[in-house]
Amino acid sequence: MTTEPDLETDLLGPVLADRACGDCTVCCTVLHVDTPALKKPAGVACVHLTAHGCGIHAVRPVICRTWFCAWRRVATMPDAARPDRSGLLVSLNFERQPRNCLEGVSVNVRLLPGSDAIASGMAAAVLDALCDRLVPVWFSDGSEKMLMHPANDVADLVISGDPAPAHLREEVAAWRERYRAFVPGP
Question: What is the pTM of this model?
Answer without folding.
Answer: 0.89
